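So, who can interpret the following?
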Amino acid sequence: MAINKKIKNVFRGSIEAEGRRLSLRGRWSSIVAGWSEEPRAVSRRVAPVLVLVIGMLWAGISLGAAPAGLVASMRGASTAHGMSLHSGDAVQVGDTVVTPVGSSLKLQMTDGSVLTLAPGTRLTIGSYNVNNGMRQVSLSLAQGLLRAVVAPASSGDSGFEVSTATGTASVRSGSADWFIDADGGTLQVGVLVGRVELTGTSGRSVTIPAHWGTRLGQRLAPVPPRVWAQVEFDGFIRRTECCQSPQPTIPAPAGH
């Protein structure tokens, strides 16, 4: 994957890569303060450090941030921390991914899970830790609709949760395919596969099995789950359809 790099203001110790700033603490003067070497000798000391940092940026390494996934496909213009995203770009822990109205995005995560952001969605990746079959994921949905197809986890201690201003939804099965929709002060959760626990700010929780759904208002307990009609799921499925190209029209054979 090509990585755009922009290095500027080196003597003040600022490097930007992919729109993320790596702060080299202290000014150039503080780096060389107290050194008695000639400027040429100082340059020989500092140059390897700059080469190392620049090489890490070429390799796509961002200090202080962990990779969480890649942009698998997209429709329209989406951003992470205000920077435009493109297919194949990496998303990292700490990124806030935004899909404006008219845009949608599909993320392939490091554990094999797939996240689809509907138009008008704002999602922050709080943590995405995958190690030795254990998974600990924390996402924050400020607004919009998210479909999470959660890949199987081999460890029973794994966690996958999405928090909102109204409540928090946590996967309570090894894998799941589910929706969470934050619309103003109302939260809806629908589960196609697996089990999801929804906890309101009141502290009360309900468990939602496959083919069931529920809703939650601010400062209220979750409504008891019920079986959802297929039409209720269809609305969420349509909103999270991303990047599907129309089937080409095959011309009829000549003479027909």
User: Anything to note?
Assistant: The chain has two domains: 10-58, 67-239. The first strand starts at residue 5 and ends at 7. Confidence is low (pLDDT under 50) at residues 1-46, 48-62, 245-256.
